[in-house]
Amino acid sequence: xxxxxxxxxxxxxxxxxxxxxxxxxxxxxxxxxxxxxxxxxxxxxxxxxxxxxxxxxxxxxxxxxxxxxxxxxxxxxxxxxxxxxxxxxxxxxxxxxxxxxxxxxxxxxxxxxxxxxxxxxxxxxxxxxxxxxxxxxxxxxxxxxxxxxxxxxxxxxxxxxxxxxxxxxxxxxxxxxxxx
Amino acid sequence: xxxxxxxxxxxxxxxxxxxxxxxxxxxxxxxxxxxxxxxxxxxxxxxxxxxxxxxxxxxxxxxxxxxxxxxxxxxxxxxxxxxxxxxxxxxxxxxxxxxxxxxxxxxxxxxxxxxxxxxxxxxxxxxxxxxxxxxxxx
Lengths: 180, 138
What we know:
Radius of gyration of chain A: 18 Å
Oligomer: heterodimer
Order of helices and strands of chain B: HHEHEHEHEEH
Number of strands of chain A: 5
Strand order of the largest sheet of chain B: 2-1-3-4-5
Largest sheet of chain B: 5 strands, parallel
Radius of gyration of chain B: 15 Å
Strand content of chain B: 15-25%
Distance between the termini of chain B: 7 Å
Number of helices of chain B: 6
Low-confidence stretches of chain A: 86-94
Helix content of chain A: 40-55%
Number of strands of chain B: 5
CATH class of chain B: Alpha Beta
Structural class of chain A: alpha/beta
Number of domains of chain A: 1
Mean pLDDT of chain A: 81
């Protein structure tokens, strides 16, 4: 589970740089983070074999991007701007009458965005997972990441799919002749 | 290992990385810009780190994919390149480091594997060595 290990290592590195320049470090309340992460693992999310959209704002962007990799075909929407930041395989966002699952990666300080989308985007037939964190935004990524990954587990379970580790081949093939 | 098992191990991964004694080095004096490079999951970590650095360190910071970075970025010798990769052996891991080295730029690698790429970087930091050993035993 290198995703979260890398996030933590990078967070510690930034904290070290702050400390070495005499600045206040980012508070890492490890017990509270672990409590939230364990709780996220125990949650069950709405997961159906239908098109997925990740809505994010600010600090949850990196988790939404990771979610896009995991579901392979989905859409990312910046909750604050109405802009489609990235999508794969077409302009599905306008097809509001189709089956959709929306995962809203959201901080409690941005709850007004959830209300906004309840009134403007979500339809009764849509499935909506509100992945809410009240941890400090700098460390909420650990809770959001766990929620998103648990959603992926539930989604695979819904279609009776289980992935195992994918081998990374030792042989490196340079795909083009570009010199750097 | 099944994916669901990976997810159940998240708390252990967080805790092991938090407790691991990293021996970090302060950034060089008068850093120009910081580029954080990654692809796939590492791209998401690059986004996160860019947000942290932008808020807390008074240094211009950017994130990019490896090939886009190599093709489109004009580096200066005061810049720093941070590359995040789990495996550290694909071509998209090698190319940003070689490009940075050719430009005389300070390089920092965050990875979980000790590969040839480690020897080409100025600084190398591991994600969570104890947890990686645990994964290999599964």
